[in-house]
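WARN no homologs supplied; continuing
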Amino acid sequence: MIRVNAALVLAVLGTAFALVNTQYQSRRLYNAVDQASAVQRQLASDFESLRVQRRAEAAPGRVQHMATTRLNMRAPDPSITQYVSHEASADALAHGEPEVGGQ
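OK structure emitted
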């Protein structure tokens, strides 16, 4: 009878240790999931703000302003534009002249 009681006590202690270990692992995993959820929310917020920022940076008015102020670009002037026909460029190539526009 003492052997049976000792075996039962050891079984109860083993089960208790297993239960405590399982609860510990469960809490640890829950905390990891909670931290991952917090990171996910932060990344989603950052993504949205970056998307808004990209939209603002690519606005046509801003691009036009940056092109004229920083890059000193201007709209093409039709009075100084040279139009080259396909036949003229073919004739120039036949005579060994370089092609206009580097094409």
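The mean pLDDT is 88.
OK
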